[in-house]
Design goal:
about 260 residues; alpha/beta; 2 domains; nine-stranded mixed beta sheet; four-stranded mixed beta sheet; 6 helices
């Protein structure tokens, strides 16, 4: 039985007609695979399967997904992020939170927590970002924490309560590749390519429920609070309580960002 493989024109243009034809003929197809989107098993002999090509500056990785999850497509990924995805495929473990990140105002260490947040009777995939130390304005000699103000200047909005989803932030996105969290991207200077605002040293594991909600909505809510406002919360109900407290104290900003990748 021929493999039920979809190869989009964009993927064909990247890998070439010869390789695409070999895939469609079944010579290089995976047979069984783990879907790069939902991470559950798939079988290209039995069900429609999408080819997904992750492309960096020097590296390209061909992956496969259920056609019901995502269409065949090319996903542009920064080279170091793509290498991180390759490491995840080979079995290296992700590092949870507390990873170095570039923030408006210089280098800092940001703790990143993923969770589902209920807003208007709908569960939204969310990331909560909190630095481990105060963030001063670049070039200033003071020690005043201006983390939230710097983010507001980037387009984040103050959150008064969690009853309404935050507005979208143009040019920013959340990168999910191979079913794992890799980075939060911000616009490049002068209209250039997006750059990492926060980036995991190794891909960050997210729950199946979080990944499913993100792939469904194609949007992730990103909340940010100053050091000490949220803390490490072991459960989503406690995380929600901490977010509500931070919002009530005027110490929470947020933005909705499109999901990049799968």
């Amino acid at each position: 039985m021929p493999r039920m493989l979809d190869v989009s024109e964009d993927v064909r243009a990247e890998i070439g007609d010869e390789e695409a034809d070999r895939l469609l003929a079944g010579e290089n197809s995976p047979g069984s695979y783990d879907c790069t989107s939902c991470r559950t098993p798939g079988d290209s002999d039995q069900e429609r399967t999408s080819t997904v090509l992750f492309v960096g500056e020097e590296t390209a990785v061909l992956a496969f997904a259920h056609a019901t999850c995502i269409p065949s497509q090319v996903v542009q990924v920064a080279e170091d992020q793509l290498k991180g995805a390759v490491r995840s495929i080979t079995g290296s473990e992700p590092q949870p939170s507390g990873v170095p990140a570039s923030v408006p105002g210089g280098q800092a260490v940001l703790g990143v927590t993923s969770g589902l947040v209920l807003i208007e009777e709908e569960l939204h995939p969310a990331l909560v970002v909190e630095p481990t130390a105060p963030i001063a304005r670049p070039g200033s000699e003071g020690t005043t924490d201006e983390f939230l103000q710097l983010l507001i200047e980037q387009g984040f909005q103050p959150v008064g309560d969690l009853g309404r989803a935050p507005a979208g932030l143009g040019g920013w996105s959340v990168l999910l590749a191979m079913g794992q969290l890799h980075a939060v991207l911000q616009p490049g200077t002068g209209g250039g390519s997006p750059v990492a605002w926060w980036q995991a040293h190794q891909p960050l594991q997210v729950t199946e429920g979080w990944r499913s909600a993100a792939n469904k909505s194609k949007t992730v809510l990103v909340f940010a609070a100053p050091v000490g406002a949220i803390g490490q919360q072991p459960r989503e109900d406690l995380l929600r309580d901490a977010l509500e407290k931070a919002a009530a104290n005027g110490k929470l900003v947020a933005a909705a960002m499109p999901l990049a990748g799968t």
